[in-house]
């Protein structure tokens, strides 16, 4: 089972990262993806397959401040 931000996600395995993010309607432009402790760069999303037992962390950046 794939873990995404600490939550099990059965449907994620077998997809590439880009397809997975698009299905979640994730804000790709403001997102950092870490796969098993390694940051995956945007040009690699389509070539990187999510495998069973992978751990994904999706980190969004939000603008703000004073």
TrEMBL record:
Protein name: Thiamine biosynthesis protein ThiS
Highest taxon in the source lineage: Bacteria
Gene3D superfamilies: 3.10.20.30
Gene: thiS
Pfam families: ThiS (PF02597)
InterPro entries referenced in this protein's UniProt entry, alphabetically: Beta-grasp_dom_sf, Mopterin_synth/thiamin_S_b, Thi_S, ThiS/MoaD-like
Species per Swiss-Prot/TrEMBL record: Secundilactobacillus mixtipabuli
PANTHER family linked: SULFUR CARRIER PROTEIN THIS (PTHR34472:SF1)
